[in-house]
Structures are given as structure tokens and as C-alpha cells.
Amino acid sequence: MAHFHSLTVQKIKQLTPNSVAITFTIPKELIQTFGFTAGQYITIKKEIKGKELRRAYSISSSPKSDSITIGVKKVDKGGFSAYAHSKLKVGDVLEVMPPEGRFIFKPSSSPKNIAAFAAGSGITPIMSIAKTVLESNPKNTFVLTFGNRSYKETMFYTDLVKLQLDYPNRFFVYFILSQTQEDESIFGRIDTSTINYVLKNKHKNVTFNDFYLCGPEPMIHLVKDHLKENEITEDKIHFELFTETEIKDELPEKLDGKTVVKVILDDEEFSLSMDKGSVVLDAVLKENIDAPYSCQGGVCSSCIARIKEGKAEMVKNQILTDGEIAEGLILTCQAHPTTETLTVDYDDV
């Protein structure tokens, strides 16, 4: 079951003309429930114009904070982001699911050198990761390459400048601006020359332990591919899309017929029949089974379940590794059953 909790909006801060930072108060009785690892996100549930919307937003605050802050960029006309900009106010109460997500940084006792590449609202989880890297070990360093149109449209700009002042020898940020030429910035976009400039010129003597990428899909693939071409192993490259893209992939063949699906959720079992051409999550929700979900676009991890019997194929997957898929994990929002029977377990993940 998707467990939502009522959280009060403590603060709303305008970051850019089209983005705000929303801070929630965490009641004492929910501090443990809403404890999080840097890089995770929360899911907000809100009914707007009679329709229930669920949206996932990455946390920008440090896990050491006693509150949770998210960054919300206005991307839709009738959805939650528009509501957050025009109607949400301090003191309002929203339904929020506890933090989750696999795009994370876990502190360790050994010093770490971390590099990150972000664009637009992809900076939100990177903010939390950067703060955690810098706070957790006095020998850690963090190098950020951040792309935007202009300083005016750069989310968390003042926070990043403050990090530079607080950690002048350990935090380095390179602002890449595509539409304006401004002081202390590089004109253009994040591309291979930018990556080379930061890693092979400015920090050529640094061996980076991990790389974190967050932003539009083309940028992520460009940076990831270039890092791999420079002999960075895939296990050191972590990435997360901040929004789903249109699903263009198709299953190899048209799926006809029905599948009997058994769903295990919160130690209960449910049974339903569905078309193989539908995705599992849609069929589950149609039966009013309260399965966890958020983006429904294959870019978050809310709807993960484990196949206990049968088989299913995913149209899109930006989260699970090949090893996890081999172990039976699926994104139910993207999975079509391919066998006559299928058992999925939301508890065993």
C-alpha cells in the first residue's frame, strides 16, 4: 500500500521565475519515517480539478536537516507544478509519501572525490548529494558542472555560491550558460569539450570515485558515453532523469490474450485478469489495489515489484540494472505480462 502522510508547508522560496523551493515541516513522530539518503525523492499526492495527481520531486536539503526541501519547476499548465506556483501557500497541508529512490550517495570513512553533471531542475538531488559529500568528511571534494540558459534561470544559484564560500578548497562549480554570456560562466552547453575542460584540464590530477548525472536524457547519455570512452567503469556512473520522455520503444511483437495476475502487497494477495497488451500497474490500479507509484514513466523506482511466477517484458527502464532484472525485478508501470499467469510481489523489493 502507498502510505502517504500529511505534511505542512513551512516555507516557499522563489528560486527562478519558473521554479520554487518548498520546505516541509517534519513532525517529531515522523522524523524516522522521513529520514532519507542524499539523492532520494518524495512523491506528492494532490487532487486537482477532480483528478488525483502524483508527482515525484527530488529532495535538495541535507539529510542532517530537520525538514525536507524540494525544488519544483513549472512544467505543466494544469498539473501540480502550476498549482505549486500559483496557489500553494505556507501552512497548506499536502499528502506526501516517505522518501525513496536509488540515485544516492552514502557517506563513508574514506575520502571521496565526486563529480556531477546537471542541467535545469536536475540540480535538485545533486544539491543534497553535494551537501552530504562536503559535510560527511573534511577531505571530500565535489566538482559540479551545471547547465542552464542564464543565471536568472539557474535553480539554487545562491545556495551554490554559498557552498563555494563555505568550502572554497573542496567545492568547485562550473556554470554553463546557453543563452547569455555572463561573468564566471562558460557559454554553451554541456558537451564533450566541457567535460574534457573540467575533468582533464581543471581537475586533471584528481581521481574521481563516482560521477552523478541528472538532467535531460540526451545530456545524460552524452556524458555517460564520454565517461565510458575515457575508461570510467559503469559502476561509477550514476544517473537519474528528472522527467519522463515520450515512450518510443515497442515490444518486439504484439501481445494478445489474457493473463491471470496474482498481486502480493502488504502481506495480502489479490487476483485479477488483464490483457497482455496493458501494463501491470494500470491493471492493478483499475482493480482499486493501492499499489505504490509515482511518475508512471519508467524513471522513478516507486512501482518496483518482484516476479515470483511467470514472465513480463518492460517497454522502458531507466532504473533497474541487468542484474536486478535477472533477479526478477520489474517496473510495473512499464511491464507487459507475456505468460498465461504472473505473480508480482511489491513487498519483496
TrEMBL record:
Stretches assigned to the FAD-binding FR-type domain: 2-106
Domain 2Fe-2S ferredoxin-type, first and last residues per copy: 259-349
Cofactor(s) annotated in UniProt: FAD
GO MF annotations, alphabetized: 2 iron, 2 sulfur cluster binding; flavin adenine dinucleotide binding; metal ion binding; oxidoreductase activity
Keyword Metal-binding set for record: yes
Family annotation (Gene3D superfamilies): 3.10.20.30, Nucleotide-binding domain of ferredoxin-NADP reductase (FNR) module (3.40.50.80), Translation factors (2.40.30.10)
Keywords assigned by UniProt, alphabetized: 2Fe-2S, FAD, Flavoprotein, Iron, Iron-sulfur, Metal-binding, Oxidoreductase
Matches recorded under InterPro entries: 2Fe-2S_ferredoxin-like_sf (IPR036010), 2Fe-2S_ferredoxin-type (IPR001041), 2Fe2S_fd_BS (IPR006058), Beta-grasp_dom_sf (IPR012675), Cbr1-like_FAD-bd_dom (IPR008333), FAD-bd_FR_type (IPR017927), Flavoprot_Pyr_Nucl_cyt_Rdtase (IPR001709), FNR_nucleotide-bd (IPR039261)
Name under which the protein is recorded: Flavodoxin reductase
Native source organism of the sequence: Arenibacter certesii
Name of the gene: paaE
